[in-house]
Amino acid sequence: MEIRNLSEKLADPKTFPALPDVVTNIVHEIDLGSISIGNLGKIVQKDVGFATQIIRHANTGAYIAAGQVTTITQAIRLIGFRMLKGFCLTVPLFQM
């Protein structure tokens, strides 16, 4: 995507996709600060595509020392709530 095209999209708020319900639920629960990794995992699993992206991210070079991640709860435990929240807020931007 060219810089000019990106700038035009950023200038028009109508071009931003609405956050999926799963993502807004994740962010809300993390902000409340009282959710367990298991319960957060149950929310993430409602969106298989998003859960797959989280697991894939947890298996990148930054986390490879922890070994192979195969479940969403392992991924959340490894990347942490703050990284998961950041991921929730940035991934939809790349789907524009």
From TrEMBL:
Domain HDOD, first and last residues per copy: 16-96
Name of one Pfam family that matches: HDOD
Organism, as annotated: mine drainage metagenome
InterPro entries found in the cross-reference section: HDOD, RNase_Y/CdgJ
First and last residue of the signal peptide: none
UniProt name for this protein: Signal transduction protein
